[in-house]
Amino acid sequence: MPLSYPRVVLLTILVALSAAFEFVPSPGRCGDARQRCVPIRECAAFRTREQVLRRRPVVCGFSERGVEVCCDFNWAAAPGASVQTTEGPPAVSDAPLTVTDGPSAVTPTAPPLPERCGEPRTVRDDEHPTLPKTDRGFLMRQRRAVIPPQLDLSHPEIGDQIEPDVVGGRDVELVTEPPSLLGGPRQTGHRWPWMVLFGRWTDAGLGDWFCGGTLITDRHVLTAAHCLRPEEAGTVGARIADHDLTLPDEVQHQQRNVSGIVRHPRYLLGPQNDLAVVRLAAPVEATFAVQPICLPPAGADHLGRDVAVAGWGLLEFGGRTPDILQEAPLRVTDPTACEAAYRRVPQFKRRFPAGFQGTVVCAESRDAEPRDACRGDSGGPLMALSDGSYQLVGVVSGGLGCGNPEFPGVYTKVAAYRDWIVEQLT
């Protein structure tokens, strides 16, 4: 029987790319225990021709779904799994939740940090031809901040405190997945696929959004300690990599229940040690739209580096909350000068009894425009591009007002807590 036209095309493609593939001696099996044999379409590591040529996939078999390759678990979609996964409130019969307000026990089987993380996303001109571009590839929409007159060290704690959030930013642009080697639908995401938004379960579902976070593994989110208490694990949920909160199908975001919350043991209801690790009830699927960010090396210093903050917080102090994810360009400033500025605030000694102690990152606007974090964005990421990947420099913690040029935003320094963070990844 003569070969049909689609079969001829497929064979031609396979022959042309045969040099980029390797083959295992035992079909259907992979030599690495961390991998499994899946159709190439279901492995996010080989979505484009460039990825195939660069990583040389190992072919482990053939099926009616096409070529099968050895794929790391972090990049292989579960068979039959949908991209947008939504969970509901935990059932009463669920396993006991983690309620320990301190470090979890360290076990020798703690999962490692992901090998692939923080991959940059670029917006191509041909995808959004009507949007004006800057040299950094994004549209700037200026919003001026309103500075509160009182001199009061604001910290995003529950009550009458001021909570950080993005001011002087702009909408995060969408990014379309590059064409895959074998065709198929392309996913839509955005520049920050590790963005997390925490909400509370209500009769209408997950909503009442209150804090941000950052995906650091397929099952762990880093956020601010003041955002979540351990006993709240069963009442909140996490939405990962959403964009416009009013459009449920705009991007392939995912949603998970929370099964455990561990605050830093030295957190005492203030900006010092304002850090928590959240464990998701089920791991997320690594896709084009959803990926973790990289942690910086222990002790890393990003002084003077260009960074970005993102979140769904207020557009200005006392203003409205946006539906679309916002981002603002910032720069890491001198911590000594930052601490000296905050020492003028009467609450400083109570909030930081021994000073910053190298556990805080301060960031301010890169230009004369007021840009900052403000109410609604606590726990979200401060990000820097380093060696080709984005690193989580800081976690939104506190500040004085929104966009006040005399008081940079205060972020928990992730590099100062890296060892503690890794210990909680169980």
Automatic annotation (TrEMBL):
Basic and acidic residues composition bias: residue spans = 116-134
Highest taxon above the source species = Eukaryota
- InterPro entries for the chain: Peptidase_S1_PA, Peptidase_S1_PA_chymotrypsin, Peptidase_S1A, Trypsin_dom, TRYPSIN_HIS, TRYPSIN_SER
Which UniProt key words apply to this protein? Disulfide bond, Hydrolase, Protease, Serine protease, Signal
Keyword NADP belongs to the record: no
Which positions fall inside the Peptidase S1 domain? 181-426
Q: Which SUPFAM superfamilies match?
A: Trypsin-like serine proteases
Q: In the record, what terms sit under GO molecular function?
A: serine-type endopeptidase activity
Pfam families named among the record's database cross-references: Trypsin
User: Which SMART domains does the entry mention?
Assistant: Tryp_SPc
Which region is the signal sequence?
A: 1-20
KW Magnesium (keyword) present: no
Which biological processes are named by the entry's GO terms? Answer: proteolysis
Q: Where is this region: Disordered?
A: 82-134
The UniProt entry's sequence similarity note says:
Belongs to the peptidase S1 family. CLIP subfamily.
Database matches in PANTHER family: BCDNA.GH08420-RELATED, SERINE PROTEASE-RELATED
Q: What is this protein called?
A: Phenoloxidase-activating factor 3
Lineage in the entry?
A: Eukaryota, Metazoa, Ecdysozoa, Arthropoda, Crustacea
Gene (name only): PPAF3_4
